[in-house]
Amino acid sequence: METCRPRDSSSTASGKELYMEEEEEEVMYEEELCDDEEEVASAVQDIGGLNEAEKPLVGAEVCPYLRDSDGKPTADSKNGLKSDGGAAAAAGAAAAGGVGPKTTMFTWFVVLALLGVWSSVAVVYFDVVDYDSVIARAKEFRVNFSEVLQGKLMAYDRDGDGDFDMEDAKVLLGLKDPVTFEVGGRPAEEHDRAPPADTQDPDRDRPADTQDPGRVRPDDTQDPGRDRPADTQDPDRDRPADTQDPDRDRPADTQDPAVRPQPPLVEDFVPDDPREDSGHPYEDEVETIDTTGVLVDEVMAEETMVESGKYVTSSKVSQETESRSDQKVKEKTKKSKPKLLNKLDKTIKVEIDAAEKLRKKGKVEEALKSFEALVQRFPQSPRARYGKAQAEDDVAEKQRSNDLLQRAINSYREASELPSATPDLIRVTLKRRAERQQFLGRNRGALLTLERLVEVFPEDLGLKNDLGVAHLLIGDNKGAKRVYEEVLAVAPGDGFALVHYGFILKSENQIAESIPYLKGGLESGAPGTDDGRFYFHLGDALQRVGDDSAYHWYELGHQRGHFASVWQRSLYNVDGLQAQPWWTPQETGYTDLVKALERGWKAIREEVLAVLDLKTGLFMPEEENLRERGEWGQYTLWQQGRKAGDACRSVPKTCSLLERFPEATNCKRGQIKFSVMQPGTHVWPHTGPTNCRLRMHLGLVVPEKGCRIRCTNQTREWEEGKVLIFDDSFEHEVWQEAASYRLILIVDVWHPALSAHQRQTLSPI
Q1: Which one, of 671, 674, 687, 654, lies nearest residue 749 by Cα?
Q2: What is this structure's pTM?
Q3: Is the model's pLDDT at 96 over the cut of 60?
């Protein structure tokens, strides 16, 4: 027992002195106990062990220097001081039956549990693990596994959609008829056995809107150009250089020189009002609703009727017949989801879907980078290149960049020209390309794009209808007329073709002949026909032949939301503006302008009479086809908020007076002009294009009797030196039955309720 014998005075100090030494050394670690206990155990083993009587002495005598003056064990605290109980309690517990180790295990279990909880909190709070990447990898595994499984089940594909699904299972179980379809014009082999009568196709007598949307349709829905001879595949391939697409690889600012330059894209992105922006996307192409300008409206090829039907009349029986015919046609023309992926695209579908997801979430810049990387890796992938074009299109719209939009237009072409592109992808890429070309004003390029589409898909009447619109956009009414005649020869009930063909006839002044086509197209209810312009022109044609049913169609147009009222039929409007046919100067707030005109009317008359007497040709005949008879000349000073050339050179005093009033000279939706009307002239009832302006008439030369103007149901006469103010968006009509000419000055001003911002941002008319 010499190992743990108390130290004598020569080698050690008393317990109190030892405490002082330990305090000076700052810390005495408990591990020393363990070292001493190991030495004790070794010594005991060397002498042959202890008997039972000696064992209690070991616990009592080992390391007495750890006991205080009362005989109790002491332990060091963190700060180096001693505390009671720690080691002795553990030793006592061990001597009492081994409770100590159990308590230690429970303590460690609690510590580990707390560590686990706080580790989980730290992982979540500090985002230590990227859960999104974990989930993405799981989804990728699921998709890859699904593709492998689909590859093994391709032998059981029965509907030709490239995979095994519920529809294929129904066919294999005899619950559904096998579908026969054509590939490249050759009929595929039909299923050998027919299902029992009680298991026939459950969709056979079901309405069109409840039938299976994924079912493959018969011959009329298959690609008509898959196995077409080489000379019809790509019309641009061997076309002479002077007839090829003028937009190909040409910078945006140099393409299509025949097309009038367009304003910056920023202007195009500012809508006038919700109705105008959605219902009349080609407002810039039409200067006034009374002209014979272009009527266009987009129509989706999938929604256009492709079969002939009974010619539409206004009788109830024919309407019911047409309705039933339309229902059958819609059932047959219903199509499944477009197939845009070829074999290569299917192998990279996961990456394409990831990039497309970014695009749909609005992260268009990231989507563009992803698609560009895909195109770099897989240059022969049509779907990747189409996605790149879409992303460029989205970025161009976001940044309002014409140059980026031109890049997208070129990318659409590149995607459609890849040899492995699917027919559906060719269709959607070229259609979108034509739309964006029209948006940029590249109307001739859009015409060539649509001509190629029609050559590839000659049976698609929707594409032919779009081609007719493209002809109208470049002012080629004859070309449009020829296209719509071809459509109506195949499908006499095609409503879209009917209304456009009727419009063309009316523009050629074939008033009576246009009525049945306009009426038939509106009654068909076909997509693209519910447009205020067609109601407008049908009513106008009926009025000109003396048919009072014109107001019935105006009322229908009002009910459909196209007209503010039966009387107020302007098409390019701002909602919420005060509407009344006649105005006083005080109501307009433009009293200074009215007073200036009325004070200076003689000087104005003197200037214009000098021009009128010289027969200089400054007065041009009215060209809006508004006259039933007579002569009506106009001399324009301002148009769409800008001076008309050097017109003011002949009437400097008049222009100097008007330049003081920006509400008139800056009115982008109006004109300032002299109007001379000869005896015997009658102007048809008509309305102006917009409710954004008011019109002032200053009388300069007015015969005593025979000249009058009607606005709605109120008729008034001009006076020399006085101003009449009315809203020309309401129906108005003019008679000149005097013995001599009538001369007035017309001044259009902004509607007083328009804000400064609206006046600045509204597009010109």
Answers
A1: 671
A2: 0.58
A3: no
* Strand 632-639 versus strand 671-677 pairing type: antiparallel
Q: What angle do CA 700, 706, 712 make, to 5 degrees?
A: 90
Q: Are 671 and 746 in contact (CB under 8 A)?
A: yes
Decide: residue 547, CB within 10 A, 0-12 exposed, 13-18 middle, 19+ buried: middle
Q: Check residue 311 and report its DSSP letter.
A: P
Strand-pair category, 627-629 with 681-686: antiparallel
Contact 34, 41 (CB under 8 A): no
- What the block records as the tokens of 681 is 């002239």
Neighbours of 709 (CB within 10 A): 19
Assess contact for 592 and 661: CB atoms under 8 A. yes
Structure tokens at 293: 């300008």
First to last CA, the chain: 117
Residue with the two structure tokens 């006469």: 717
Residue 204, both tokens = 């056979």
Q: Give, in degrees to the nearest 5, the angle at Cα 461 between 283 and 202.
A: 120
- Kindly tell me the number of DSSP H helices and DSSP E strands found in the chain: 29, 17
E-strand ranges in 105-242 read 182-183, 186-187
Burial pattern 366-391, b for ≥16 Cβ within 10 A else e, equals ebbebbbebbeebeebbbbbbbbbbb
Nearest Cα neighbor of 461 from 568, 583, 332, 586 is 332
> With left for phi above 0 and alpha for psi between -120 and 50, is residue 587 left, alpha or beta?
alpha
> Rounded to an integer, what is the distance from CA 492 to the centroid of its chain?
33
The CA-CA-CA angle for residues 288, 289, 295, to 5°, reads: 110
Q: Please provide residue 306's backbone torsions phi and psi, each rounded to the nearest 5 degrees.
A: -125, 0
469 touches 437 (CB < 8 A): no
Q: Which of 236-245, 370-379, 443-452 has the lowest mean pLDDT?
A: 236-245
Instruction: Give the C-alpha separation, 681 to 737, whole Å.
Output: 7
- 3-state SS of 257-268? CCCCCCCCHHHH
749 with 694: CB under 8 angstroms?
Answer: yes
Could you tell me which of 300, 229, 325, 231 has the C-alpha nearest to residue 461? 300
Spatial separation of the C-alpha atoms in residues 445 and 470, rounded to whole Å = 10
Helix axes of 461-473 and 477-490: crossing angle, nearest 10 degrees: 160
287: DSSP letter: S
pLDDT tens digits for 618-669? 899 988 889 999 999 999 999 999 999 999 999 999 999 999 999 999 999 9
Judged against a pLDDT cut of 90, whether residue 707 lies above it is answered with yes
Distances (CA, A) of 131 to 127, 289, 574, 605: 9, 59, 50, 82
The CA-based angle 460-461-462, given to 5 degrees, is 90
Closest CA to 632 of 642, 641, 644, 624: 624
pLDDT in tens, 309-353: 333 333 333 344 344 445 554 554 455 788 999 999 999 999 999
Tally Cβ neighbours within 10 Å of residue 249: 9
- Per the DSSP assignment, residues forming a β-bridge with 345 are none
Residues 6+ apart with CB under 8 A from 242: none
User: Rounded to 5 degrees, what angle do the CA atoms 176, 194, 162 make?
Assistant: 50
Q: Which residues pair with 714 in a beta bridge?
A: 711
How far apart, in whole angstroms, are the C-alpha atoms of residue 487 and residue 530? Answer: 19
The span from the CA of 537 to the CA of 543, in Å, is: 10
Tokens of residue 493, six digits = 């009930």
538-552: pLDDT as tens digits? 999 999 999 999 999
Closest CA to 295 of 531, 462, 520: 531
List, in sequence order, every residue forming a beta bridge with 67; answer none if it has no partner: 73
Pairing verdict, β 681-686 and 714-716? unpaired
Q: Give per-residue pLDDT as tens, 272-292.
A: 333 333 333 333 333 333 333
Specify the 3-state DSSP secondary structure of 110: helix
Q: Which residues contact 278 (CB under 8 A, 6 or more apart)?
A: none
